[in-house]
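Spend some time on the protein that follows and explain the fold to me:
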Amino acid sequence: MTITDLMKELESLGTEQNRKIYQRHGAGSILFGVSFANIDKLAKRIKCDQSLAEQLWQTGNADAQTLATRIADPAAFTEMMLEQWLAVCKYHGLVDQFVSNIVAKTPFAEKLQLDWYTSEDEWKGRAGWLLVGLNAMEGASQPNEYYLEVLAEIERTIHQEPNRKREAMYNTLLGIGIRSEDLSQAAIATAKRIGKVAIDHGDTSCKTPDAVAYIQKAREHYAAKGVPKKRSVC
């Protein structure tokens, strides 16, 4: 499949309704409005194709770039390439897809997490905190002391950070809270000291969940089933 053929197919799958929804979430004006269900179908059909992924990424089209994160080969990325791709990300949804589907699966994830999470740049900072949150949710073998230090950093800086970085920090707080019973108590205590966290979700129906209630409910639900591999907090 050529990039020309694929872009035509993406365009045919786009809808005006989806364009409006994605734009309200910050996707910008260059997109077709392709549903995630259709992007998933295309990714399953194409499978792994690094060359095509790079061409899709270069289009600047949000739908094409989202698909690129699904078909790219994490093993093909150098640290410099990851930095270059992140520099192109200008909205939180694409940052999340890029980090979850590519960065987290590379051998550079731990180093980049440390490099990015302290960044004052909104998108780089979000990417770093998303990596921290993914580690918390997916059972990485970090001791509790590590996550207690993360909670302390969240408490110290969250109110001063850019909006979408702040959101990722808040989601990390929730992730740590449902990781284990010991950490849930520490996360709840941290959330109470932090108080209300203001997150601007734009012109959407997304709401910031109450951290204490969210953690308590999630811990009850997953006590017998284990922590899920992924979660979505709008």
Remarks:
- Residues 66 and 222 are 30 Å apart (CA to CA).
- Residues 229-234 have pLDDT under 50 and may be disordered.
